[in-house]
């Protein structure tokens, strides 16, 4: 029964994530809450960065970090699946995509909210980071749309992996071209979002928020992966029952 | 010439078939049987290397011809242009005029495929078998849309091919007069 | 390995492109139509048209590449030609590249050749820049066709795949659109842009065929 290997059940992942996901949820929520409390009530505001609005940084910077990290993770999982065909890697890539898109959208939204008072515009075309994150968002959308259009999970996995890898090798080029594009328009007196140097008083709340968002992200990925594993098991059971009937 | 061991395939979570093994030798005519959706086409596509098998493996000891249920004809191509194109692609030197005549395609030889009948398109696809001598023929529903005379012609081609030491694997629906040396039910 | 199957794939794609509706006239009409709509929408002030002209042409070029590409592999899946090409004994990446190149020849190159006329309509000066611009549109179009080809191959089995191709290809078009606009605008600080455009097109030519090959094998599966 060589076919059994294709059915290999990720037992260890289920056992591990069963207790790890709740731990991540609790730790993540705690850290995010602490970071927000620090950011909103404790740290002083920075007038150069727009006054109180700069406090959105404690959501914006973690979201920006996760936007990049999640695409990297999705592309890595796709690569692992493409080379070794380990089903769990595909399940991970599939789970990361919608969450990555959400955090990327969060990054864009908070960046825009921050940009209005500081730059005087909701959307700053000359900001290389905003533009790069926007294209990352499109990469996520394309990935999800392509997977959804395929008629079996095996084909969705293959198509998704090809696209994620093509996207990943293009990201540096996209980043470079966008940087070059925006560097030509520097005369429009753009304020840099982080300022010349991060004040030490912001560092810890920011780091803890970043860690909290990452843990929450990880926990949600695990939840989606567990749901996907059980969905596939149920579909398998159903197929077996139908075949037996 | 062609052997397959322990093939199995999943469609979604459904096992289409598994544990399928097949050995094709010189002069063989293997007939694949099974209800609609049993996986005849999929098995042929695995043998041709078009579809990936989820288990087992295929060993190909000889070149093959592929006639799928979609002809591979472009709407703007005429039967003559189609054969000329593939003769060139394969480096075959057969005389396309003779083949067109043999297949009963002399009259519509210069008509674009979009104006041909289903049977004429089928004959054009089958004519590719004559372009190039290849030991293994993989045929998916070769008789579809053919009239009685066309069927006879294809049966004669298969007969001659086997006499010359070739082998055929075909998925055939219903009674067609196809004489098999080996039947495989999926 | 003989190059014969690759040449045959190229010839068949050329024939298909010419037969598939008025040859190069259709994409040309689309290109011109999309570009000509813009002044109607934003006004006819010459200074503004001169400023936006190159960008409009890049957008129109990207759009017409997407429209052309929708069918190139989908048709092969539907009529069974893909099965034959996958078994033709040549690397699938080379077949895919030959087909994509053929479609660029019939739909991309004519657009580049017509770009000086449209540039003049957008108030560009009649000088040698029109020719270097045409070269840039040609090179950039080639990159558009190859990245778009990846999207087309990935969505070859998808009904209404055109929308999907656009979504997939859009982020991949970004470097070409940026380098290309810079190369054509000739503004200060853009002297390297033509080289960057050429380099990113070479990158597309080197990478996209392998992605197309993997996607086409999937489409046939």
Automatic annotation (TrEMBL), chain B:
GO MF annotations, alphabetized: ATP binding; ATP hydrolysis activity; transmembrane transporter activity
InterPro entries, per the entry: AAA+_ATPase, ABC_transporter-like_ATP-bd, ABC_transptr_haem_export_CcmA, P-loop_NTPase
Domain of life: Bacteria
GO biological process: cytochrome complex assembly
UniProt cross-references to SMART domains, sorted A to Z: AAA (SM00382)
Gene3D superfamilies associated with the record: P-loop containing nucleotide triphosphate hydrolases
Name assigned to this protein: Heme exporter protein CcmA
Originating species: Hyphomonas johnsonii MHS-2
TrEMBL record, chain C:
Lineage summary: Bacteria, Pseudomonadati, Pseudomonadota, Alphaproteobacteria, Hyphomonadales
GO cellular component terms given for this protein: plasma membrane
Record keywords, A-Z: Cell inner membrane, Cell membrane, Cytochrome c-type biogenesis, Membrane, Transmembrane, Transmembrane helix, Transport
Biological processes per GO annotation: cytochrome c biosynthetic process; cytochrome complex assembly
Pfam families, alphabetized: CcmB
Signal peptide: none
Compartments, record wording: Cell inner membrane
Stored PANTHER family: CYTOCHROME C BIOGENESIS B-RELATED, HEME EXPORTER PROTEIN B
Transmembrane segments: 21-42, 48-69, 101-122, 134-156, 163-184, 196-220
GO molecular function: heme transmembrane transporter activity
General function of this protein: Required for the export of heme to the periplasm for the biogenesis of c-type cytochromes.
Topological category with respect to the lipid bilayer: Multi-pass membrane protein
This protein's name: Heme exporter protein B
Species of provenance: Hyphomonas johnsonii MHS-2
Family as reported in the entry's similarity comment: Belongs to the CcmB/CycW/HelB family.
């Amino acid at each position: 029964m060589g076919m059994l290997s294709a059915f290999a059940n990720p037992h260890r992942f289920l056992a591990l994530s069963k207790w790890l996901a709740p731990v991540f949820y609790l730790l993540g929520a705690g850290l995010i809450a602490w970071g927000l409390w620090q950011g909103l009530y404790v740290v002083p505001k920075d007038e150069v960065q727009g006054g109180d609005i700069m406090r959105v940084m404690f959501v914006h910077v973690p979201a920006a970090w996760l936007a990049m990290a999640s695409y990297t993770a999705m592309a890595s999982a796709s690569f692992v699946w493409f080379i070794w065909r380990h089903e769990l890697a595909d399940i991970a890539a599939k789970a990361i995509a919608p969450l990555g898109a959400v955090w990327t959208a969060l990054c864009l939204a908070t960046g825009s909210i921050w940009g209005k008072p500081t730059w005087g515009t909701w959307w700053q075309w000359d900001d290389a980071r905003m533009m790069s994150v926007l294209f990352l968002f499109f990469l996520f959308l394309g990935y999800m749309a392509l997977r959804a259009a395929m008629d079996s999970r095996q084909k969705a996995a293959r198509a998704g992996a090809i696209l994620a890898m093509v996207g990943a090798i293009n990201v540096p080029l996209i980043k470079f071209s966008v940087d070059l594009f925006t560097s030509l328009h520097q005369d429009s007196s753009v304020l840099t979002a982080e300022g010349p140097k991060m004040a030490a008083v912001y560092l810890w709340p920011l780091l803890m928020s970043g860690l909290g968002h990452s843990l929450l992200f990880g926990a949600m990925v695990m939840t989606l992966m567990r749901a996907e594993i059980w969905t596939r098991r149920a579909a398998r059971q159903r197929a077996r029952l139908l075949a037996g009937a | 010439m062609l052997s397959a061991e322990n093939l199995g395939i999943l469609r979604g979570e459904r096992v289409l078939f598994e544990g399928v093994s097949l050995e094709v030798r010189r002069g063989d005519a293997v007939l694949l049987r099974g209800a609609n959706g049993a996986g005849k086409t999929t098995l042929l596509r695995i043998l041709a290397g078009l579809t990936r098998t989820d288990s087992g493996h295929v060993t190909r000891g000889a070149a093959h011809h592929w006639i799928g249920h979609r002809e591979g004809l472009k709407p703007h191509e005429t039967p003559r242009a189609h054969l000329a194109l593939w003769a060139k692609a394969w480096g075959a030197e057969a005389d396309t005029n003779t083949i067109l005549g043999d297949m009963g395609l002399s009259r519509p030889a210069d008509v674009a495929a979009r104006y041909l009948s289903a049977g004429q398109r089928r004959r054009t696809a089958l004519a590719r078998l004559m372009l190039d001598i290849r030991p293994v023929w993989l045929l998916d529903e070769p008789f579809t849309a053919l009239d009685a005379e066309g069927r006879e012609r294809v049966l004669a081609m298969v007969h001659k091919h086997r006499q010359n030491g070739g082998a055929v694997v075909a998925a055939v629906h219903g009674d067609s007069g196809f004489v098999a040396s080996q039947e495989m039910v999926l | 390995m003989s190059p014969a199957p690759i040449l045959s794939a190229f010839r068949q794609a050329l024939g298909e492109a010419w037969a598939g509706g008025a040859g190069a006239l259709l994409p040309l009409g689309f290109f011109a139509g999309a570009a000509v709509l813009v002044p109607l929408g934003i006004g006819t002030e010459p200074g503004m048209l001169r400023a936006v002209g190159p960008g409009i042409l890049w957008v129109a070029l990207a759009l017409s590449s997407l429209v052309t590409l929708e069918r190139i592999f989908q048709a092969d899946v539907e009529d069974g030609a893909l099965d034959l090409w996958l078994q033709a004994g040549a690397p699938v990446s080379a077949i895919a590249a030959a087909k994509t190149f053929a479609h660029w020849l019939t739909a991309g190159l004519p657009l580049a050749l017509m770009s000086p006329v449209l540039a003049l309509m957008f108030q560009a000066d009649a000088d040698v820049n029109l020719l270097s611009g045409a070269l840039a549109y040609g090179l950039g179009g080639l990159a558009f066709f190859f990245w778009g080809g990846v999207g087309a191959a990935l969505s070859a089995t998808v009904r209404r795949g055109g929308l999907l191709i656009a979504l997939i290809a859009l982020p991949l078009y970004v470097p070409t659109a940026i380098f290309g606009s810079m190369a054509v605008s000739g503004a200060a600080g853009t002297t390297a842009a033509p080289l960057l455009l050429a380099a990113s097109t070479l990158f597309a030519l080197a990478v996209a065929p392998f992605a197309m090959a993997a996607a086409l094998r999937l489409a046939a599966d």
